[in-house]
């Protein structure tokens, strides 16, 4: 009897999956027909549509897939990839996606930590903005328009083409796409002086759920507020951003000074916490933590690398360091002077003397599967706490671990929490970026490394922000909560992760979402949900 029931269940599952597959196939065929029939130029849109039957499908999918953890046979793949050339292609894609029940995933650079810009567990298509990447720099007014498919490296390069003393406060990784980066706030080596990338956005062009192209004036201040830090994929497709450029000296100074545990790294990291957010706004000192081979053969040790950008020359930097952080023992030979654009290469880790052309390369120097998390620190971590952290690094999987302590203060303290959705302002000494590279093949090994970073994250709980334990939206982490794959997600369920990213701003984000996309077409595992009116909840 049990065998018969088992056989019936198996047959039912086969029929169910066959039905789902057939339905998805029908959806995807009708979706493509919709794209072609509603496009003003059927030939042009047909050239940017890729399906699994297309010989270029795999290369297009994988080109901007930056975390190989989501490049497995079991990872769900899009039914269609669209690489639009024109705004009209995006309008048609939204219209047809809604009409034929395909979820949209929007990809600019492909750096989403959880792969949400190119993976979904329901039938979906990718809108890949790789061709929407023009940049126009206005030196006279110190502004630029940059499209969402451009990378930070391309933006830096185009600014430097026009000026040696204009810059933009954005991130370190040059292959990150502007669209996702700006949408989550965007911190970097200049944020203590000038604030986040999102703080310097002054206009935008958005295609909403109804296919309308809106600028700041026509979208209104609520939506303009939400897209500058409220995270991507919730409110529409932001196709371009107008940004304020900032003035920097023609010469800046950098250093990268490593210290191991045997060289008093514990004391130095502990001391750094007391000056990192209070030092001159022209100076940013971050700390990179990882393991290296010890001087004792066969052993590993923890290394803290102090990495700095100073908006000034060496002598002034040495004076500041002697006054504020003499324990590091910085000397003139540690320092290197260069232009701001050259500093973007140095900070990212390109070899000295590299051509600026590397900023135009959309492919990272290396790609490795990883898992990331984030935290904010508001009270210095004790030396005992740091020593406990080092012990986690000495575990086997700790060889793949890398933490970055990134200081706040300066301009970040001056901007109110509610100015943009990004709330992590005054009161934060530094931000922690956790990452573990998965150094072995296979699912079991991957799970071990992910378990390691989760245990590390648990260990750090007493030393970081509380109620909520804050997190950075651009370092997507589904461990802290997620929406339902199918069906509605309640405000209470979404707020579990939402208040960690956005604190009290989450409520306003939900209100904006309800106003601009009440049907929740733009959604993913951590998108902002709309709320139903009270009378609908009661069924009246």
Question: How does this model look, in words?
Answer:
This protein is an alpha+beta fold and 540 residues long. Helix content is 34%, strand content 19%. It is built from 18 helices and 18 strands. It has helices spanning 2-38, 42-46, 57-63, 87-99, 152-162, 178-183, 191-194, 216-219, 221-227, 265-272, 314-324, 340-348, 383-393, 411-414, 443-459, 491-502, 505-516, 534-537, and strands spanning 49-50, 80-82, 103-107, 124-128, 135-138, 143-147, 166-167, 201-207, 213-214, 237-244, 246-247, 252-260, 283-293, 300-310, 335-338, 370-377, 401-407, 430-437. The protein has a 7-stranded antiparallel β-sheet. A 5-stranded antiparallel β-sheet has the order 5-6-10-8-9. α1 (2-38) runs antiparallel to α4 (87-99). The radius of gyration is 24 Å and the shape is globular. It starts with a helix and ends with a helix. Residues 1-23 and 534-540 have low confidence and may be disordered.
